[in-house]
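Before relying on records like the one below, remember that each one covers exactly one chain. Contacts with other chains, cofactors or solvent are not represented anywhere in the record.
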Amino acid sequence: MVEASVTAASVTAASVTVRYFAAAAEVSGVEEERLPRAEAGATVGELRDLLVDRYGAGMARVVANGSFLVDGVVQRDASAPLGANVDVLPPFAGG
């Protein structure tokens, strides 16, 4: 009998871990979720559209003025490719 092995790399390639902070977590109702790559899309814009479709007007407000941190790098360009990890950050106040 041959057992299939799942490596961390294959899980990462097949999915995107999305973490939500502050208002984004409040709107989504979760702090983190793993989305299949096919569902999340290939770009920041595709993920943004999915999150707005899934979580509605509240998420639309968050992503309109917030930012996405893709594998540790801020991405505001909708055509930027997704990485293995995406943080959804609301706009921050303060100074």
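The chain has one domain: 20-88.
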